[in-house]
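Lay summary

Proteins are chains of building blocks that fold into shapes. Our project writes down both the chain and a compact code for its shape. Here are two examples, one after the other.
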Amino acid sequence: MNQLLQLLRIPETRQRILVTLGLLFLYRSGIHIPVPGLSARFLEEQQQGSTVFGLISAFSGGSLGDTVLFALGIMPYISASIIFSVLAKVSPQIEAIQKEGATGQKKINQWTRLATVPIALLQSTFIWFGVFLNMPGALAGEPTLFLALAVILALTAGSMFVMWLGELITEYGLGNGSSLIIMAGIIAEMPGSLQRIIQQQDEPYNAILTLIGIWIAIVLVVVFVQKGERRVPIQYARLTRGRRVYGGQRHYLPLKINMAGVMPIIFASAVFIIPGVLFKVVGLERVAAVFSDTDGFVYVTLYVVLVFFFCFFWNNLMFRPEEIADNLREHGSFIPGIRPGARTAAYLKGILTRITLAGAVFLAFLAVLPNFITGSIPGLSGRLAYFLGGTSVLIVVGVAMDLVDRLNAMLVMRNYEGFVKGKGTGGAGGMAGGAGWARKT
């Protein structure tokens, strides 16, 4: 409580907190603006039982279930950011631009904004043709060309406005704006989810107590795993000049257990959503049912396999052992007992494989947890289970930990005692996680 009062006494921090709360309030107010021509809350009624839909809805800010202006939310911008994150690792030209520092990052951010527009148009068009036109009752009137253009452009404009709000929060507020918008959407959805449980269950309070117990256990596990890291010791070479000895300091390279964050679950869910909708459109209902039967053995098995695959794919894409080994050698550093160069790269790759396996098991458990919750509480829909457990908790806890790290850094910079006592918090987790650079022990 004392630390919070100290934060509010700092004018800059107080202003950033107020700006963040104000912009989030503006966003949450905007999700009540309906799109003309669409049946109110139709999509929510159609998708209420889908856990995969819950994931996409969370990344839209929790409003994809409503036929409102902000239905797409921040999802197109997140998609564009993921695309450029991958391109920065596979394209030498973009990687070179990224290494230019602030100038290069500014250029990539501009490209990300521009790429958000066609992605938002594509997703809006997909929702119109893949959902509204194929389901009776979705439209309030006739499906005319004018109505189609109005809906697609309205959803796109709403998504661009949400992107702008996110960037304002990032620049003038606290933390990453996109992450805070997603977290706000999930948290705002939770009270409504509990209310639906009370309405659906014969003994709602037993179900709520069960969910609260599961939720607390998940939070503890997520915090433990998110803070967990493998510290690889690093030694700087000693340099003797006259009677003075320079270097020889010991540092460590922190490798987080869950480097990939929620990215593998996002990719795996996308793989399930796209084929399922396509098969349904072409009339292959039996094949489409495999991708929508969230309790089926085939669905769960494929989902877990995809989470494992994308976890290894993302970590190997974002963490380059050869590049880390070269950087260590160029800076006169080495891992004690390991020869610099290829041996160091092989050593880091072995560590990466082991911690990626542990992270993949953790993410696979979170991915199928909503299915377990729906099985434990009869009558509970998949989407409600998603918002009350599993990946949603991972997102909320990850963003909250990142926010605490930032606030703690602001206090420490002004010689106050931070929220977290000791050596530090171990770095910000963020949406995607990741490995930091060497730190002093």
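And here is the second example, written the same way.
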Amino acid sequence: MSSEDLAVTSARDKLTIRRYEMALDTEEVKHISNLYVHEVRLIENKRILYKERKQERKDEERRIQKEHWKREKANKRIEKENKKKEKKINKLEREREKEMRKTGDKKSRARFYWLF
């Protein structure tokens, strides 16, 4: 009887051990699954971060381009104003020279009086 009890006990122990092994296996599978989930989340977060950085760089480049265009536009406007001023100054100089020629060409003539 004691030998049968040992056989039954050993079979029962084997089943118990097998259940524990299966429980450990399922826990290990869950753990590995969780690790994969965390790895997938990490990869997704890296992708999101990469996209955000790429968008930030694009925005920064656009901002720099806009500033460059604004400076260029301001420079063109200033050049245009300078050309207008220069044109106006040249016009005034020509008019002044014209007036100077008019007054400079006229020589004061001696008056001639008939004396009788």
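What can we say about the second shape? Residues 10-96 form one domain.
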